[in-house]
Specification:
209 residues, alpha+beta, 4 helices, 27% strand
Length: 209
């Protein structure tokens, strides 16, 4: 079957997925929300502080079908601007006053707010209900179709080059980012064989739900 380089990852996928319009989804990172679902399958992930030292993710999908994404959480203005840069479909469950006022003014995005038809609650007796909202790429692209949104990407591809030969790669490297407290401390450790940085948070390797 023919393949094409995905615009956000450079990896070979089916042509229709390679240039599918990015889908940006707000995913929370409160300890009660962990482990999250679907971050591992995102093409890109943004992470920034929302308030009180708590970070939140905006996971961007396109080149893969993902059956479970979440917990979906509320919007903040910075993420709306990042989504606009990708001309993305933008998914969230509510938002700050500033974000909800901003969204209708940003023509580059298509708003896909929480609505019962395209999201599910997965009750967990041990956590608050805001940690229980999930969706999928199929549902969210269907939502965009219902809104008659354009589903083809309207951005140029990132530029990619081949990996450096293993013999030329460093043996090890690390990077750390302490957003606020140990709960939100992120560390990356370089893996020579895969030529990637493995991420850990609060000293734990992340697990997909």
């Amino acid at each position: 079957a023919p393949t094409k380089s995905a615009i956000l990852t450079g990896l070979a996928v089916s042509p229709e997925l390679a240039t599918r319009r990015p889908l940006a989804v707000m995913i929370e990172n409160h300890p009660d929300a962990r482990p999250q679902a679907g971050l591992i399958n995102a093409d890109l992930v943004f992470e920034a502080i929302v308030e009180g030292g708590i970070t939140r993710f905006m996971a961007v999908y396109g080149s893969k079908e993902v059956d479970k994404i979440g917990p979906v959480r509320s919007s903040r203005p910075a993420y709306v601007h990042w989504a606009a840069g990708l001309r993305a479909l933008y998914t969230h469950a509510g938002g700050s006053q500033g974000a909800l006022a901003l969204i209708p003014t940003v023509s580059e995005i298509v708003d896909l707010p929480h609505t019962a038809a395209y999201f599910q609650r997965e009750p967990r007796p041990d956590v608050a209900s805001e940690h229980t909202l999930f969706s999928s790429t199929k549902q969210l692209y269907d939502f965009a179709r219902e809104k008659e949104a354009k589903l083809e990407a309207d951005i140029k591809s990132y530029r990619f080059r081949d990996d450096v030969a293993p013999a030329k790669r460093p043996t090890s490297a690390t990077a750390s980012l302490n957003f606020s407290t140990q709960t939100y401390q992120v560390d990356w450790a370089y893996e020579q064989d895969t030529n990637r940085y493995a991420r850990s948070q609060a000293g734990q390797a992340p697990v997909d739900r």
